[in-house]
Amino acid sequence: VQLQASGGGLVQAGDSLRLSCTASRRTSSNNGVGWFRQSPGKEREFVAAISWNGGSTQYADSVKGRFTIFRDNAKNTVYLQMNSLKPEDTAVYYCAIARGSYGSNYDEGYNYWGKGTLVTVSS
Fold first, then answer.
1. Three-state DSSP class for 47?
2. For the sheet containing 17-23, what is the strand order?
């Protein structure tokens, strides 16, 4: 399975961006999907996850209330809507397919990773 994350860019604080993660085949519609991010000099961290049918979601405390994860299985795509962006949200964002039907907030819960998309938020 190949994943393609897109939608990153340079925005100002307070702006919004929507990231997309598209899988190469429908395998992903049976699995949870997660978004992670990594800033320079920092460990990769969990951002959000969604279950196979979208019925269950998880968020890191740092993005709760600002980010929304949702999916369109007909398009094999998971989205991350990011509102009220802050400079500390600047990072490379990665999507990943979970080993099971539900997402996880741990790297080990995922077995397919896409190349990241860079989000830069200026103050």
1. strand
2. 3-6, 17-23, 77-82, 67-72
Strand partners, 49: 34, 58
Torsion sign (Cα): 54, 13, 115, 43: negative
Q: By C-alpha distance, which of 110, 47, 54 is closest to 80?
A: 47
Number of H helices, E strands in the chain: 0, 11
Give the pLDDT confidence score for residue 112 in this predicted structure: 92
Cβ partners under 8 Å of residue 40, min gap 6: none
Residue 112 β-bridge partners: 97
Separation CA 58–CA 55 (nearest Å): 10
Condensed to tens digits (0 to 9), the pLDDT of residues 2-46 reads 888 999 999 999 999 999 999 887 656 789 999 999 999 999 999
- The gap from C-alpha 51 to its chain's centroid, in whole angstroms, comes to 13
Token pair of 79, please?
Answer: 């989205």
Helices marked H in the chain — which ranges?
Answer: none
